[in-house]
Amino acid sequence: MPLPDLPWPLLQAVTELADAPLTQIAERLRNATRPYLGSSSLIIFTEDCTGRPQKKAGEEDIISRVSIVELDTLRAALSDETPWVGEAEIAGRPRPVLALKHAPSQALLVLTDPHPNDPGHNAGLDLVTYLWRIAARRIHEKVADAPPSYLLESRAASAERIRVTAELTDLHSTTLETLLAALHSSLLDDAAARSTVTDLTAKALVTLRTLSDRTNDLVTEPVATAFERLREDLRPLTRFSGIEVEFIEPPLNGRDLPGEVAHAARAIVRGLLLAIMEQPDVSRVRTQWDCDGENLLINVRDNGRGTLAADAPSIVRLDRRVQALTGHLQIDVMPGWGADVFVTLPLDPPARPAGDVAGWNLAPRELEVLQHLAAGERNRTIASTLGISENTVKFHVRNLFKKLDVGSRTEAIALAHSTGLR
């Protein structure tokens, strides 16, 4: 094909999508698909990203109200990767949607109110499917790599989401329990009404508790499950290496791992194994996980010559991941006998001063804007990423200044960084 005839806009969109940071991937995917298939909003739901399982772009009224329960229900109804077009409950009411699932990661793409920009041409859906697979692969690879910036963002978002969900659950549970007590009162003589409303209220309580449990499931992973995923991840890497890898499993009753800790642990062990495989005369590696209730304890040991260096670039990069979670990495080198690597990853964020994120009483959208500010983004970029207007971003920034008691973006960013937001 002659160069002028190449589909340059599509190729440019693929390049931007393949290079997208996770905070911008929904907006870039929407921009890439828009020439072929219009929509009122685009929503990505992936449990790979424990901190932010939803990535959204489009109409604020939809993306601010769509729930994990709605997306989980829709995903469960899809049997394979075949595009599904129909009506589904999204943001509180039935809407026309196009839904696509990515089988390897179980990620879900939802386009609301889809409409082909060229009704007489059917290739649009194929292109959307192709672009979605690139985006889903990008998310999966980015999370597996677990760079420090992702770990910091994920830890902050996970902690905030659990806090907000717990508060909402407690609030609604108290309300419903009060209603149940009133309906059980002997002062009410309409038995049929009491029975009906009691049943409905009990079901609402169950739904709320289920939502809370589902949220917690998204941000934690059983330690045994996380270790088994590590074994699966390493199997292709070690199959033809000639190195025997011994896995010492953690106790089954160990505490569940926060998602960012599980991601970091797998990435760290994978990186250590790659560094060890570059050494001469290594034939055996042992990796062990344990949990003391407060920390995930990782030990990787090889039987090489003991040439693994703490200042090697590959080890320094791994140490940055460890430090992002306020952990500790130590290497004991035994010349002629190998190297012993010990990593400690705290399961909980460090204690913060009284003026921390939780004490600022930020709304969810204000927290998102603050996180983007802390990443050094300007108002226009934040607006594009979140799918809101620049004036709305300015409104949130003004509110942030008041709640954080600061007078400038620089002060806000410095205060955010002091609490671990990046």
Automatic annotation (TrEMBL):
Please give the InterPro entries that the UniProt record associates with this protein: HATPase_C_sf, Sig_transdc_resp-reg_C-effctor, Tscrpt_reg_LuxR_C, WH-like_DNA-bd_sf
- Is Transcription regulation included in the keywords of this UniProt record? yes
Recorded GO MF terms: DNA binding
Q: Which residues form the HTH luxR-type domain?
A: 356-420
- Keyword set, alphabetical order: DNA-binding, Transcription, Transcription regulation
Stretches that traverse the bilayer = none
Q: Which GO terms describe its biological process?
A: regulation of DNA-templated transcription
Name the Pfam families on file.
GerE
Would you tell me the protein name for this molecule?
A: Response regulator transcription factor family protein
List the lineage, top down. Answer: Bacteria, Bacillati, Actinomycetota, Actinomycetes, Micrococcales
